[in-house]
Predict the 3D structure of the following.
Amino acid sequence: MSKSLSRGPFPATRMRRMRADDFSRRLMRENRLSVDDLIYPMFVLDGKNQREAVASMPGVERFSVDLLLQEAKELVELGIPAIALFPVVDAAGKSELAEEAYNSNGLVQRCVSALKDRYPELGIITDVALDPYTTHGQDGIIDDKGYVLNDRTVDTLVKQALSHARAGADVVAPSDMMDGRIGDVRQALEAAGHVNTRILAYSAKYASSYYGPFRDAVGSAGNLGKGHKYSYQMDPANSDEALHECALDLQEGADMIMVKPGMPYLDIVRRVKDELAAPTYVYQVSGEYAMHCAAFEKGWLDREAVIMESLLAFKRAGADGILTYFAKAAAIILRDHAK
Ligand SMILES: NCC(=O)CCC(=O)O
Ligand SMILES: [Mg+2]
């Protein structure tokens, strides 16, 4: 018979004691989600008074600039610190060399200046990658075998990042996974006087199958076809490699590093935060959003509770902030619960 460590008839430690009442549960709570943790990814399209639903992402819409401004007003009122913009580019804006990516009067650039003009306090994050602008849907410029050319792509990414900074972007976020792009973008920003433009590096971006609904949302799924991104995004089997990627991006001048996707990669978030101790972000991607929504629609999961639990899990794993399509919903839940 095993003897109780308490050496008496009663357990010395009852873990349930602290769980018994709300006051003591609150006192020992280790992590909290606040609106300060939320970054809202948003899809933008050309035109006026346009809003389109995304079929595989219930509740997510693509907005034209005028409606984006209206939406931004609500986000500012909710206290959301920053949004991340993703453009829907029509066929005329796509090419082999993705020149539209650095058009100073392009869709993203116009959205950024309109937003900064109207809501200077709202942080604006832009996606630095070529996939919305290439005819083949890859994140870079390809050779005749379809291989994405690293250094040529980086040259174009630098032009794109500079055009975003010039338009007023607060944060540029290279999501392409080319080697050396953070260093080149940082040097170019400094040289052009954009000393305080922050870089949020998609450092550990995995070649995940959870991005499907996003590709529907930006309309690049058809262009990519059966193509894949294994030659530049990371193998889901790897973890040390994520630390290597994040460390390199920090050395090259990233201010913030990111792990993506989120929930299936919480172990990576924890390792990155523990070992590098830098501002660490996580992206709860479109597939995670879609599967949650599908279960909510079926009544299989409780919407509010599961949204909040899924986001709190990122905080517990060590994330400083979360890119999530639930950002607005979560901000509303947080506001209403504070009342
Ligand atoms: N560069 C941004 C993404 O690829 C987002 C993916 C997703 O939400 O599935
Ligand atoms: Mg890298």
